[in-house]
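Page 47, continued from p. 46.
Same chain as before, 282 aa.
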Amino acid sequence: MLASHNEIIYFLEVASTENISKAATRLGITQPTLTQSIKKLEQTLGHELLIRSKSGVQLTKAGKLFLKESRQLIEQWENLKKSINQDNDEIRGQYTIGCHPSVALYTLPYILPKLLRENPHLDIKLEHDLSRIITDEVISYNVDIGIVINPIKHPDLIIKKLKADDVTLFKSKELAGNKVNKILITDPDLMQSQTIMSKLRKTEYIDFKRLYTSSLETATKLCLSGCGYAILPTLVTEEVCPGKLEKVKGAPVFKDELCLIYRVENKNSKALQEIIKHITKQ
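Result:
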């Protein structure tokens, strides 16, 4: 068990005044509260810190040692708080942005150049994974900001909607139907793909072969080449090959929301708010 900040502060006041009653008055607490705090501190350390008498208190050998070390500890603590407050008030430091690789494709190139040009002291690290994993990483303090699809609501998160998207079945606009293979190209790990695939089982596509890939960019290019039909987010197709794919009429559609997420306590960080400003302007 570690001593609390208040316990150390209370001890330092007692050591300074050499009197429990006077220390309690200066601290603005009752004498029993102060006495209990000192006893708890002694129990934590496993040593008596004070020799009590009618005239006041004196430090034991352990008390004198703890007095010296605790002053340094409090000084380090105050320096740490000052450093953190300074960091929160300045646009500098390293921050991690997390998003799916395909989301990065149509967002980050439109955000990072201007952000880093205007804020040369910012150091950005990128983390790429599925949106649900990035969301967990933000909640777990491993990622500062997430640009994710359909994030779950969580009490520790602030969620800002950026834009809507449709995930559906696409085919090459340039090739006739008889030149496109009867293959469904999809990422089987995406919930959107799973939902659409389940609905396609009730259609003519039930007999199509499957071609699985975790790269939506690869799926887009394969679809464009006539390798097959692909389940894709519209925003990805518009970035990879604008105007060259078309949605299959009557195919099921999954509605996506692209969102910005970050932890509630980060709303006071000037640097993070600068990053958020550039993302929401995109």
